[in-house]
Amino acid sequence: MDLKRLIKYSRKYLKLNLLGSILCIAAVIAALNIPVITKDIVDRVLLGGEFDLMGKLILTLFGLTVIRIATEYSRTYIFEHTSQRVLYDFRSDLYRKLQQQSFSYYDTVRTGTLMNRLVGDLQSVRQLLNSGYVSLFEGLFRIVSTLVMMISFSPSLTLALVLIVPVTYFAMRAMSKQLRPAYRQVRESFENLSSSVQENLTGIRVVKAFGREDYEKDRFNEISSEWNQNNIAAADIRSVYIPVRRLIEGFSTVIILLLGGYLVMQGQITIGTLFAFNTYVVMLAGPIQEASHLVNLWENAKASLEKVFELMDEEIVLTNKPDALPMPSCRGEVEFRNVDFSYGEQPVLKNINFKMEPGTTTAIMGSTGSGKSTIINLIARFYDVTGGEVLVDGINVKDYDYNELRKNIGIVFQETLLFSDTIANNIAFAVPDATDEQVEQAAKIADAHNFILDMPEGYDTVIGERGIGLSGGQRQRIAIARAILANPKILILDDATSSVDMETEHEIQQTLKQLMDNRTTLIVAHRISSVKDADQIIVLDEGRIVEQGTHDELLELRGKYYQTFIEQYREYKDGAGSLKLVSGGME
Ligand SMILES: Nc1ncnc2c1ncn2[C@@H]1O[C@H](COP(=O)(O)OP(=O)(O)O)[C@@H](O)[C@H]1O
Ligand SMILES: [Mg+2]
Predict the structure, then answer these.
(1) For 46-51, which contacts have Cβ atoms below 8 Å and span 24 or more sequence positions?
(2) CATH for the stretch 2-313
(3) CATH class of the domain comprising 329-406+522-587
(4) Which atom of ligand 1 is closest in space to residue 103's alpha carbon?
């Protein structure tokens, strides 16, 4: 069961928890003895006139109170600490799992949902761990020991009061049953809310650009009010049981006064006993009332635990073989053999065959959606092929440890993602221990050095989320520097120079060329100027390779590549007869 799995996490802190439990017991015992002293004060000092006992009794009372406070304080301290640490372990495990998940997992799940699991859900689990365990344990012990004390004072009076217990129990159980689905709905609507806030704020520029603020506001209000309503529904259930509880309390007071008063008059118990008894009943009310709070906590935590463990148990689609190969050195040979691939039902790549020799440059062209990025995803094994095989250095990528494989591949993605950190750290992302010189060197190659120096704090400038504050071209150049610094055997640029102007692109390519000597490079680009020097050019169309060869060979084919060439080189304007390039691509 979920709870058992949770307890496994606490096992590490068994000793501390044990100490906490002992302190709990001590606190309860101290509290239980306080009415014994007050009984003596009433019966022997106030009514019996033994005034010389007064000092001793007051001192004992004081001592007991001090013990009670000290033990209660330290047990709270201990449980707070252990529960935080258990939570930390738990969260680490969960995060590790998320890090292991492959691309295909993230295709299907919303970021906001995952955030909730890691933050909100774990928080309610912690509450259970902390006050939940303690209250349960302490509550039970308190109820039992208080009852024992009460019985020793007056069995008949206790019996009358105990009749109320089953009533309380059933009331709590009924509440718990109703609360469970209510809490689940609260969680679900909250998740919906935070997911949509997260998505919306991430896409705020798009929302504004299309003037969709009002629509998004309405949608938010709708989701938000749904959450409200679910919360209110849960609160309604809880509030119904408050009068029930008060009624039960009221009953117990009446019983004490009537039956207890009768017993005093009959001389069966003393007034001091009645006094003590009353205190015990109040003490008993505490844990019984807390039981309802506990039911709350428990239902809340259970709904959360369910979801957290669901995440924990999520199957990892892409795994290493048990005997996965390391990759101590990589030559940089890549080969696709009869590769088919689909993300879902729809085939995306069909019978792809090509080979990249070590140290050569391959360029891929093709319209949007033709499958260029997908080919890259398969080289780094972000997804597994559905047919055929992808080989690196002659070995199927599935046979490598994928982390080792990916260490040898540097990718500049089509969409540049920079972290909100300094520029230097963004560049050194793959090589955290890189020296400043190395970072600068990489930036120079990517033609980023100059604009970085122009930033307020140079390499130490912190950039915003998703690189806001930088132009698209600047972001791309930082991403290129990142890939260059990683010094991979296989360098992949997925449309990486689309946002930089043609001249800069040319410069970057010239510097890259020096680097490309002993490196296999794959370039996805739309401009003929970016691909014409490649050792081979692959033209993709709807997931198939339609043309393949060098620039000259493809021109001779008079096919798709040739058409693009004509479109892009149409204008001869320069007097010297050199080519004037017109921007534009195959799209
Ligand atoms: N993560 C994904 N899940 C489902 N379909 C995808 C995914 N990524 C891409 N596709 C689909 O696969 C096809 C090829 O995409 P992609 O390789 O990104 O094209 P390109 O990079 O050439 O523009 C497109 O039809 C696209 O919609
Ligand atoms: Mg793409």
Answers:
(1) 47/270, 47/271, 47/272
(2) 1.20.1560.10
(3) alpha beta
(4) 1
